[in-house]
Structure prediction request, 345 residues.
Amino acid sequence: MKPFAQRVIEWQRLHGRHDLPWQGADAYHVWLSEIMLQQTQVATVIPYYQRFIASFPTIAALAAASEDEVLAHWSGLGYYARGRNLHRAAQLIMKKHGGEFPLEFEQIVALPGIGRSTAAAICALARHERRAILDGNVKRVLARHRGIAGWTGDRRVETQLWQQAEALLPPHEVATYIQGLMDLGATVCSRSRPKCAACPVQDDCVALDSERTAELPTPRPKKSLPEKHSTFVLLRHGNDILLEKRAASGIWGGLWCPPQFDDASSALAYCQQHFALRDTLPLPAFAHTFSHFRLHISPLLLNVERKPQLAAQPGRLWMELADALNAAIPAPVRMLLEELQGHRV
Prediction:
């Protein structure tokens, strides 16, 4: 039987993905794709990647952009700390590395938002260095093939997986192998209903042999998500909407959102005091789930007679709806503003 890595390489040549826009690109493009692909599927990432590269074709262009510009291009991808870290890292590269993406693994992993696996992927895919990676797809392939039980986020289990990832590295064609592992996990060794008959390493897969593909890798231990509630106040004057920039840290850090209150009564009390309201319309409530809590959003549309001056309120802006939709806004806010723009409320 051929070595594990050789089988993956041969499968990649015949059946792997070869038309991804960042394949064969330089370190900047690979870095951007790897950050975008964290917890996000390829089909979702491709249009974001293409728009991002069109606006920020170089590290220098990304570093020179404002955070608002960067986050506007990230809007809808979620996990916005990724975009902020990407921007900060580009500025550090300009300052410390003369605008050239660093060559050394230790320099790369020191950049904001880049961990061991992402740094290794950049080195392997852009520079063909012999580096092991361990993203979610690779964890699943190795956990099944080697029969490693336990949640892959557990330190003990992750250590085992890293050992296997390092041990299975081929001496040559590392970039093809790494891409093959990722493609294998994404298209064949999927989370549910894996296509084992099409897998190049099925002959010695422990999970397949022991009929445990549905059990491995072990799911993350379940815990109930905390429930939180917020009233989003959509203050509208004609075709303008009032938005405020959130603090840099925390959920939706640095993004533009409607004013938020704990409940409708406190929202109304504040707005009645500071705005001349023409009418009030509660909109249908909905929930938005984050990784660590569920937010129940109750939107409240308030049409105002006139726009008060905001000179004494930095971080707040009246924006035309079309401009707001092109700004750095989170997905739930985008949905609400699209409803307003479509005159459905």
Q: What stands out?
A: The two ends are 64 Å apart (CA to CA). The beta strands are 227-237, 240-245, 256-257, 260-261, 277-282, 286-289, 294-304, 316-320.
